Amino acid sequence: MGVLMAKHLAGHKPKGGKVCLQLGNVAANNINERAAGFRDTISGQKGTERLTGQGGWTEIDGCPLYTNDDIATANQQLADITGAHPDLDAFILVGGWAQFGPEAYSATTTALEPKLKAKDLVIIAGDTLPPQMDALKAGHSHAQVGQRPFEMGHRAPDVLIQLIKGEAVKDPLYTGLDECTQENAESCLAK
Amino acid sequence: MKKLLIILAAAGLAMSADVALAQKKTLAVVVKGLDNPFFTVLGNGCKKWNEEHPDSEYECLYTGPALTSDEAGEVQLVADLIAKGVAGIAISPSNAPAMASMLKEKKPQMPIMTIDADLQPEDRGLRKTYLGTENTRWAC
């Protein structure tokens, strides 16, 4: 998932620039793996702990930001960092938190519209829930990489029953991803 | 007196058997927090499974702490489900190391898997499998 976020960013900003990653909490394994996938791909170097110019990308001071999975905090951070760093080239919502508060997210990104339209600032975000797709269609993000939470919840009981019966189960079992851009926003989601 | 005790014990056994028959076995899906709309969609998948399997001996239970920020609450919730003896548990751990240390201590007998988020690499022996997104890489 982090790899796809990096690919979309590279498509918009091939030369690199200044970037800020927004993460969840320090102990969330899935979000940290996603950030690792993003950094490794955008830098072209496996095991990149922080971007300091690799692949043309530098993480600005004060980033990554940790939201502690709080929607209000996530939006405050987005407003603060884009306000304090007008030269920021990319903001990566490694998880979708800020967009889960559509009013606050819209207020911040509406103020940034000229920069978003000119792609001076590129926003790439995780997940494709309805308010996030609305943000994408409004031009308030450039790409959304969506997980399939319904599939996860729907398959889990069958996997647990297999485990209870002692049947062999593959490890890991991956669910798919949907890649949504402003161009394919109407048709990108798995049915 | 002895006879009476036997009768009482037999009645107790019969009652608990009735309760067991009436109740389905629980497959618990524990998410980081019920306040995140991502997990609401995950819970809808669990509910859909119940609708599709009305005659199953199992039922899917979607649960989690009210707030995603309540990492300790999530660990306690899973510990309670283990103590209750549910049939199986799928966990999206908010604080992966804290969840792992509880699992090490409780040594659950029922199958444990992770969903959406995994344990740290060194703790993966504590769960049978991971179901969710490939976060680091994705082979197209």
Gist?
The complex is a heterodimer of chains A (191) and B (140). With 191 residues, chain A is an alpha/beta fold. Chain A has helices spanning 2-12, 29-43, 71-84, 102-111, 113-117, 130-137, 149-164; strands at residues 17-23, 57-59, 65-66, 90-93, 122-126, 143-146, 173-175, 178-181.
Comma- or semicolon-separated keywords:
heterodimer; A: 191 residues; alpha/beta; seven-stranded mixed beta sheet; 7 helices; 41% helix; globular; B: 140 residues; five-stranded parallel beta sheet; 17% strand
Q: In terms of structural class, how would the helical and strand content of chain B be classed?
A: alpha/beta
Rounded to the nearest angstrom, the radius of gyration of chain B is: 18 Å
- Strand order across the biggest sheet of chain B? 2-1-3-4-5
For the terminal residues of chain B, how far apart are their CA atoms?
73 Å
Portion in helices of chain A: 40-55%
Q: What is the CA-based Rg of chain A, rounded? A: 17 Å
Could you spell the SSE succession of chain B in H and E letters?
HEHEHEHEE
Mean pLDDT of chain A: 96
Beta-strand segment tally of chain A:
8
Separation, N- and C-terminal Cα atoms of chain A:
19 Å
Residue stretches of chain A low in confidence (pLDDT < 50, at least 5 long) are none
* Beta strands of chain B, count: 5
Q: Which geometry of chain B do the CA atoms define?
A: globular
Verbal overview:
The complex is a heterodimer of chains A (191) and B (140). Helices cover 41% and strands 17% of the residues of chain A. In chain A, helix 1 packs parallel to helix 2 and helix 3 (71-84) runs parallel beside helix 4 (102-111). In chain A, strands 1, 2, 3, 4, 5, 6 and 8 form a 7-stranded mixed β-sheet that branches. With 191 residues, chain A is an alpha/beta fold. Chain B is built from 4 helices and 5 strands, in the order H-E-H-E-H-E-H-E-E. Chain B has a 5-stranded parallel β-sheet with strand order 2-1-3-4-5. In chain B, strand 3, helix 4 (96-106) and strand 4 form a beta-alpha-beta unit. In chain B, helix 3 (71-84) runs parallel beside helix 4. Chain B starts with a helix and ends in a 7-residue tail after the last strand. The model of chain B is unreliable at 17-21 (pLDDT under 50). Strand 7 (173-175) of chain A pairs parallel with strand 5 (130-133) of chain B, so a sheet runs across the interface.
